[in-house]
Predict the structure.
Amino acid sequence: MTGKRGPALGCLILSWLFLAGALEGASAQTKPEGEMRWALYVTLSPVWFDPGEVSGQLTPFWVLYALHDALVKPMPGNMLSPSLAESWTVSADQRVYEFKLREGLKFHNGDPFTADDVKFSFHRAKGSKTLHDKIREVVVVGPSRVRFILQEPWPDFMTFYGSIVSGSGWIVPKKYVERVGDDGFKRAPVGLGPYKFVSHAPGIELVMEANEGYWRKIPSVKRLIFKSVPESTTRMAMLKRGEVDIAYLLDVPQAQEVKRDPNLQLVLSGGIATYYLDFLEQLDPKSPWHDRRVRLAANYAIDRQALSDAETLGASRPAGNHVPRTFEFALPLEPYPYDPAKAKQLLAEAGYPNGFDAGELHQLPPYFSLGEAIVQYMRAVGIRLTMRPMERGAYMALISSKKAKGLCVCSTALYGNAASRLSEVIPSDGAWAYGGYPDVDALFKQQAVEADRKKREAMLHQIQRLVYERVRYGPIYDYIWPSGVGPRVAEPALMLINPYPWSAPLEEVRLKKP
């Protein structure tokens, strides 16, 4: 195999520097001490303990960054940071990627980490369909070398395998999983991450303890506890009483309370997730949503900046595209303006001068106040919706079944570039797509194998422009939200990985010295 010397050498230098820094930090690190507690806004699912189950969601990475590790992953300053892989090379024909693995690492149960675990983890993962369709074969070259052979050259292989797109690149121990089975693994997960699983009380808390043999650095905090606390007011009360040290995702009244309290710190984080309206029945000729004018009216009906003000203290950025502007190949598109008079005009032109009954609004939990506000905006122009609140697991199952009707307030938070962000929503075969357009599908397949960057950018821009012109969906805003940090915390590790919005990497969190 011939490698691309520039990228390969760059990866090696990065890994050497990264390892040198890790060893220096580890030598100076004392033993982990203390306990740090988080109040989470949704209930932890045991499915999230298993990287093989992760697909199309960002919240499972709460657990993955604690218990598990990946060959390559987003880290501070490098969105494709060599982790369990020291380096990698790419063949001249762009079809073969070979990874050199770190040697001498052990899983939490003592099993050695080898290339067999990498191959096993990839094949059992239920993550990105795009990624799995592109891989012809995974070959174990030796205990510390693994080779991925692609069906054809694919510029986005590292983007899909090494970023937070799926759990396919996160590694589980082959022998342990085969011994205990998938259900047994979820009950007692074993990984390579900075923290070890201790216990899980469903609906209450997850307890983890420091892995003092973690290759990158010894964690500072001995014990981490993730508590499931769905109510913002309760999260705030626990923060003020010192029962938790970090309270994620506070509603505006509680966020304002944090700002007024000199003992607490308000932190804004996010920018990776985009919320958007999805017109689930738009391809049904019998549905009002089939008419572009009706979809456009729905977009004119909502005041995006007012929603940001009400939901996130004005921090969230109104969006005209569900590909963030900071992403490679993103096409900057202006948000639809708030114009209820124009919305009513469009509805009348479409044959609905008195509006219409639009069925249900499916709102991503736990953001129900956002859904209620959108219901009111829609009703003001004549689009009559009823919100049906549900638990997050039920919501995800319904939307992914592709049997939901009406309107959805959905969210996407796939990392990478415009192609990865589009992949699960826009192509007809996307995991969350309720159909699509043949010409867009053809363009998406064509760009995936285009080696010329400018040509590829032009195709991805064309896809985003077509989607916008056809009003395929209604982007709302790039989500940035407030959290509260308590007085014991020296480093909450929020936004160290920009724009990953939660505490990570967890070996970096620190408590103040007593």
About this structure: Residues 1-27 have pLDDT under 50 and may be disordered. The two ends are 55 Å apart (CA to CA). The first helix runs from residue 5 to 28. The first strand starts at residue 33 and ends at 40.
